[in-house]
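Kindly review both lines to help learners:
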Amino acid sequence: MRTVALAWGTRAVHAPARAPSPAPLDVRLHARAHSGAGIGAATVYDEGVSTTRAGRGYDGRGVLRPVALLLAVSLSACAPEAPPAPREIAAIADPTAWELVPPAQDVYVQRRPSPVQCDPTQGYYAEQWAGVMAFKVDTGWCNFLTVQQPALVDLRADEVIDLKIWHFELRANAPAQAWLGLAIDGTPVWDTQVPIPGDPGLVEAIIELDRDVPEGAPLQFHVDNHGENQWLLFRLEREPGSG
């Protein structure tokens, strides 16, 4: 430190001169993030002066001293969003609520034979089977069928559809194939072919979704085959996905 002489009346006093410009500031940054975002708190050391108040500091005598550097740091901690909690298993359709689809609305109309022969009382109906309510299609009375109803619940893209269909012995005059399908909101999401003739068996599928589906979206279930055979749709449920 150097001194300069000041004249005050007839007395001479010595006062400290302003210090030369300090060396570059030593800036130490302490920052932490909380609740997804945080504001960094900066501590600036200027010749022994410490500040955390928006770039202003106090010296040892309690005198406010401006600091040349104002440092504001904003940190964003973007943690991955937690996946939604799995929901309970829920039925997507009511076995008693399926209704015949008009040809103009039928997703499977291109498969429609000529003529279509389908008895509305004996060709399809709901019945109790193996302790559950199922939707039955008897192709001896209905050679082509697409039915529809609104979805009972909404579906998320991270969920799956559990579908199960039982068939009795499959018979036909000549080898053939049965064709089964499910569409949601006008888009086919699953189909399969079953060879005829064949022994009784189970057709099952876990159908993955690529988008959310709102409650009330139209569902279409389709069956067509040659021969007198019986199909029972006994499960169509929403389940949590494996991922």
